[in-house]
Prior knowledge:
Helix content: 25-40%
Radius of gyration: 23 Å
Largest sheet: 9 strands, mixed
Strand content: 25-35%
Low-confidence stretches: 1-7, 268-273
Shape: elongated
Distance between the termini: 44 Å
Amino acid sequence: MAAVEANEAGIERVHVRAKWKHEAHDFTLWLARHLDLLGEAIGIPLELKRREAPVGPLFLDILARDTDSDVLVAIENQLEPANLQHLGQLVAYATGLDARAAVWVAPEFSYHHGTALHRLNEWTRDGIRFYAVKIEVVRRNSDPNLEARFRRVVWPGGWDEDALVQPEEESPSKRRYSEFFQPLIARLVTDGFTDRTVQHFDHTGRRFPSASTEAASCSYAASLGTERCWVTFHVRANDIERTNRIFDELHASREEIEAEFAARISGRDEAGGDPRVPDWSWGRYDPFYFFSISVARDGSILDSERHDEIRAWMLDQLPHLKAVFDPRIAVILNRITSEEPPT
């Protein structure tokens, strides 16, 4: 957001930090005192319960109550553009506090974040209601007083796409992948599988960081080509010897690992899921100090009619992959770390 932007006649939109210098000490305090304005913007009468509401070791910015329906409302606020970390926090805090509405307040929402919240509302029709609210600060006719105002961006049953920051021009291929992965990422965050994601080598995949130690870093990934799609476990160490040692220890248990995974996904016919036999691939990439262990199936980014089915498969397979590999890699990395002398 620019420092000062022209807006309606006689109005300048200024940077939010012109009014609030500090997010927690200034903005959160102000918002807690002006829940009536926020409630008016989203159509919910709000009453403050507490600030910095504890959720395990973490804290929700504001916990409020919907005075009409007497349910809790989780509110997470930012002075910076919306990001995936705060989306994950909002979902985790709302779930942890059994809130029935989750409100995300920020000065800027990308198209992808708007899409994610819109999809969450579609998936949780009888659960948590999600709202995105844009906070703006304006100056009227050179008045030195700064005025704050809210603009509803996403709400149950709708969204204001014009209020979102549109993605930069992308090639049709990149745009197709972005549209495929955004709902997948939103669901994985909602389910607690991950709280962040990175592009996986190129735009055809997304990686979800997992365990990380001085010995190695691990992640899970989902990727999609023109004929096949994959869910993958990746490990990267800082030298070939260590990478190969970790791979070899896992590979020695390959039969046991694949059998455990197969047992986890058994009964798909009865459950209405995917009855395919897992198609495994174990690969070492020595020049790059990493290896990948993947389960694949048929699927194409070009076949949009099957995208929902492919996403459902990825959402089903990734937690089972994590359940199989997380305990094993933890034992291996702990052993390697204990064997190495302190630096």
